[in-house]
Structure formats: C-alpha cells, structure tokens
Amino acid sequence: MPAPFEPPPLPPPALPAPEPEVDPSFRILLENERLAVVAKSGNLPCHPGGRYRLRTLETLLVAEAGFPAAHFVGRLDRETSGAVLVAKDPATAGALGRLAMARRIRKSYLCIVRGAWTEPVGPDGWSDVFGRILPAGDALVHRYRVFERLPDEAAWRGADPATAARTRFRPLPWAELGAPSPPPGFVALECEPLTGRTHQIRATLRGLGLEVAGDKLYGPDRAIYARLCEGLLTDADRRALGMSRQALHCWRVAFRDPATGGDLAAEAPPDAMVAEFLAAFGA
To answer: Does 21 have pLDDT greater than 80?
Structure first.
C-alpha cells in the first residue's frame, strides 16, 4: 500500500527587512494636555509607512514622551526638519484639522536653493507666486508634482481649488543664518505656503527653475529618488546631492488653541540644517 502523501514543509516566514537608520532626535517646543508642537530631525519619518515601522516620530512620542497618541496635523516629509503640530486625542485632531482646512494655521519654512532669486519683490520684501500644483507621476516616481504658473491673483482665484497654489517667498540675508558670506550659487528663502498642496514649496521652486539643496525628488535627477526607494543610491548620486537630507525646515507655527481660544506660536531654530548645509557647501 503506498505511503500517504505528505506535502513538503513550508519555508520559514521571511524576516522583515531591517529598518533604515534614522536620526531619532526631537524636542518639544510647546505642549499642553491636548496638543504639542514638536521639532524633529531631518531624517525621521512622522508615522509608520514603507520601510519605517518603529523608528518614527509617532512611536517616539508615545514611547519616550508619554503621549497617549500622536495625530499629526500637517506632517513633514522624513527629510524635512522642524516644527510639527501634534494632537493627542481625536477630538483635538479634528478641531485642528478644521483650522488647517480653513488656512488658519500659519507656517513659515526656511529653504536653501541652488540658483538666484529673480522674482519681483514687493515693498514688504516678499514675492507672491501663484499657480497650480498638478500630479505628474509615472512608473518611475508616482509622487512627483509639477507647478504650472498663473499670471496673477485673479487667475489663481479662478483656478480649481483642489490644485490652486499660492506661496510667498522672502530672500534672507545669510548673516541672519550665521553665514558671514553667501556660498556661491545658493540663496536662502523664507517661504509661506498659503495653500496646502502636496510638495507645494519644492514643486513651485522646481517650476521656477530652482531646486532645494539635497532634494532627491525635485533635485538634479528624480531617478535618484527611485534609487533611494530601492536602497540603491550611488556615490555619484550623493555627490550630485551634496547633502544627506533636503535643505527644507519648518521654522515657525502659529495658530489658535481650539479649546481655549488663546493664540499659540512656536519656533524651531534651523541651526542644525544650516550647519549641515555649510559643512557640505562651504560658506
């Protein structure tokens, strides 16, 4: 009598790939029982996703800072440092989300870009740039966006609200950032996005012919970002970028506490980002 069929043993389950290294540093700038503003490093994702499961700001705030939960109100990309607004409970997250939708949370960023700033500057020192942010991803990089410029505020107001983008830029003196003389070929900009499109600052600057230093997606070659996702960055890629992270930092956040009605504001000094930039490109 033939022996009963026995299926071959199943292979052991594959172990998860090790998570990439991150910089887990963060600092609480402002906190009450419902919310906080936290400054994060330029190599730390806000929440779990993709290759990052445990090494995130969300897990650190719960495990190390004692937050009951961490609901981000406008998260930052992993390589963008600076201030992040965090709600500790769903009700506060909803209230802050409504403020964000109404554009009542004000944020300003610092970025350092390759090129020269040639946009007209108004009497207040700011340049107002109007346009649309449109998805243009493909099989190589699905997250890519393009900026389509509009001639003026009237055209912007007539654009589809889902794509309309308005950003204010102000060239900054290098001395204000601790650099006594400007590195050649770069300009420092304070940026205020007045709308909330994906990658608004970086895509707008790319559309103006500029690129944020160290930007793997909107920088010298977006194929660098595809190689980053596969863990295949080359030495040539790193030389082209110059920095290990992008030179974009959320500098200031101001909003009204939805529970008390009091005005709150926090500032995250950009010293670490500026120091890394100066170390990479010289002053």
So the answer is: yes
CB contact at 8 A, 44 and 22: yes
- Helix or strand (DSSP H, E) at 9: none
Rounded CA separation 40/270 (Å)? 11
- Segment 184-198 shows an average pLDDT of 93
Which tokens belong to 170?
């102000």
171: which strand partners?
189
Nearest one of 201, 249, 234, 219 to 141, comparing CA atoms: 219
Architecture of domain 26-281: 2-Layer Sandwich (3.30)
Ordered by start, the domain boundaries in the chain are 26-281
Question: Per 3-state DSSP, what percentage of the chain is helix, strand, and coil (rounded to 5)?
Answer: 20, 30, 50
CB-CB contact of 252 with 107 (8 Å): yes
Report how far Cα 230 is from the mean position of its chain's Cα atoms: 20
- Segment 224-233, tens digit of pLDDT: 888 887 888 8
What pTM value is reported for the model? 0.89
**Distances from the Cα of 280 to the Cα of 145, 211, 271, angstroms:** 27, 16, 14
pLDDT, average across residues 68-91 = 95
Q: How many CB atoms lie within 10 A of CB 260?
A: 10
